[in-house]
Amino acid sequence: MGELSKTFPVRDYNLDATLLSGQAFCWQSIGQAWEGVIGGRWVRLRLSKVGIVAEVAKPVHNWACLEHYLQLHFDLGRALATFPDDEPIQNAIAALPGLRLLRQDYWECLASFILSATKQIVQIRQMVALLSKRFGKPLESGGSEPAFAFPAIEAVAACSEAELRDCKLGFRAPNLRGAARDILDGSINWQQLPTMPSNEARAELMKLRGVGQKIADCVLLYAGGHQDVFPVDVWIERALRQLYFTKRRPSAKRLRKFADTHFGPYAGYAQQYLFDHARLHLKLK
DNA sequence: TTTGTGCCTTAGCT
DNA sequence: AAGCTAAGGCACA
């Protein structure tokens, strides 16, 4: 018999900070809970005293998909212990205890970050929601609103540019459509991505128009689980400059090298802490 | 080789 | 109310 809800005992899991942190864009805050879609199923999540409570609309036999997405078995303490013992990163950890990295679907993650160019989180959410509503598969919902999956690669490839522009994508529309078509055409080695080393996977992703290193690195970190990859965007750049390079403005190359070498094997995690700390608590310019 | 500029859209803020 | 800016990438100087 399947179940409609299950509680996963976890410690040190800051669900709010994690789902708000700008790594995923499909979560809606409803009352005390979060509603979204994982693995083609509508899900409601909330934090209780004993752990994360998950509810679904149709009985589930195997919750592995959810455990994987939320990375419930990840040992956060062990990762944090590898961070450098400097003030900026330790302050960021203290400010956002329990912040985690998710493990998302490759296509949804890639598509979301193609949409992210010069957009703020609220606007990315809006684009993702519109795309899902128009071109995603309708799902059984346990909430008051109908639920839709993020549109499949095939569905996006079949859209006209105008249809995508109607979802407020602007100049990102041809990039998203092009990525979907290139993947289906076999123009990049999409199937092997999960098993490739990060340098190779990054190079593959960057063959897509509209995908530079920043977006490729986000996909490697948030979907591929390459936890050593440190995406550098303008916020992180400002944060690193202010926190670590107070004397002289570093070149882009110098900054890149610092990001790649200073933070250790879980640099991607460090990036998330610095990013969210900077975004929420720091005055940057 | 590295670094800077304008452009691609759109929405929300001033 | 027009002008500016925002988690990026690209072509070009």
Q: What would you say this structure looks like, in words?
A:
With 285 residues, the protein is of the alpha+beta class. The chain is built from 14 helices and seven strands. The protein has a five-stranded antiparallel β-sheet with strand order 1-5-4-3-2. Strands 6-7 form a two-stranded antiparallel sheet. Strand 6 (138-139) and strand 7 (147-148) form a beta hairpin. The chain is globular.
Sum up the structure in keywords.
Endonuclease Iii, domain 2, 285 residues, 3 domains, alpha+beta, Endonuclease III, domain 1, TATA-Binding Protein, DNA-binding, 7 strands
Unreliable runs, pLDDT <50, ≥5 residues? none
The whole-angstrom Rg is 19 Å
DSSP strand tally: 7
Cα distance spanning the termini: 55 Å
Looking across the biggest beta sheet, what order are the strands in? 1-5-4-3-2
User: Number of helix segments?
Assistant: 14
Under the CATH scheme, which class of the largest domain?
Answer: Mainly Alpha
Structural class: alpha+beta
The CATH homologous superfamily of the largest domain is termed Hypothetical protein, domain 2
